[in-house]
């Protein structure tokens, strides 16, 4: 594992809203968003090793959940996003003496913001110790980022504390040797190649579990289907295999199966997305099959469309994946790409998320921290000017930024207080004026989880029938209200969820998030009340937050093609929506997903006149003054 330790001094640059002196009482350990669902398990393990109570000396904080004690907690696990929110109240992190940023090579947006802010904080707090760690980090470039030049020190003339340049430390891991195998020729179908490799391992290698990296649920389902077919036709080569999928949308009970001990005489085959690359360790893995691909987000600021595409991984990811084998004994890694491709064509590092993502949430976080000169911020990897301008435009249109690109009062500061994407936060604020905050808080909570439905191979028809029981003509957001109402009326029953193909764990999380949002709303002065059955005001509130995502059905379109009002891009309602095949004339959507087409997810029908009511300045600016019904 490579680590970079930093003790240099940096200037305040917008972080001067807190005193620089502090009583250092806590050690903070940070894990990136990929570890969100595993932070409780990690902190529980550390507490167990130390012989202390979880929530006392050792605790964790994730979004909407805090298990720490301000008087006794000395080690705290949390995500980068949570730490950024803590900085809004304590910009210099005066509660902490050490900050450890683990898995820094993942380079999420929040990680890059955090690294830039930590560099600034050290200018005011040279006593703060930073540890940046990863098994595959480019340590020299990270060290250079935290380096304080001698010339600058001389200009500043400071002798305020210890002068310590970043140190690079290498810590030997305890893993066993992993033998690497490459294919001789490029493979045409990596899913089929992965299946063939699993069967080859099972046929020729000693017992030991197998971990396969594929790109997403579709690939994983296809691989399991092919392995099950092989089991039916050739039991000799596939008997004894326990096939386990692993991806973020999988119900928690099924995710937990990958941690269960492998029965004697059996071999587990865990087929996973890159969630298993850094977020968790499966102790029994001996053999690793690496497809060489992963799904990654790429944002086009010109079209304002964020695509999830299959892309080649980097050498850093390849090394990280190989390290999953050899935890309990010497292992083998089978790479489904050639050695020449790995050495000559594969990129050394992945593209930082900062350079391929929508930056709306990033900008408001920095603005809330008092960083006004965002383009001059010291980024580990600079975002594109086009993406930054697009983010500023959206935030201005939402009324979150003023003409000077500063947070508006009170709306801008209120949105920054709500730990959700700004469009959802604006929807919540608008619900206060429209008198439907009870309903909108429920919708916001549902939009904060991945999905409230249980998807799986062979259940599409049953799921569609279940959705019809809750479907609302207005669209998905009102349908969510019906599901939530049914869940409460059932007494929050898991059996009710199973019967209706509703994700029980997701609904429990919705209840928790909604309660947290209710408390935040009340703190912000929002009167939480219901509109009863007036769904028009609910739709108006959704429009107030998502007016930038408005679309119009193309005249005489038999394929259900819509055009976005902004940009005139072709989009379609996703088949999972209750409005699929209904095709109302005007809609707004929550997000876009790209496969063979650009699909709108979480869609609600609107009246076009509401767009001008919600944001006349936005549509006038784009020349959209006229809306035909």
TrEMBL record:
One of its GO terms (molecular function) is helicase activity. It catalyses: ATP + H2O = ADP + phosphate + H(+). Its EC number is 3.6.4.13. GO terms for cellular component: catalytic step 2 spliceosome. It holds the Pfam family Helicase_C. Transmembrane segments: none annotated. Keywords: ATP-binding, Helicase, Hydrolase, Nucleotide-binding. SUPFAM superfamilies: P-loop containing nucleoside triphosphate hydrolases. This is RNA helicase. The gene is LOC109004414.
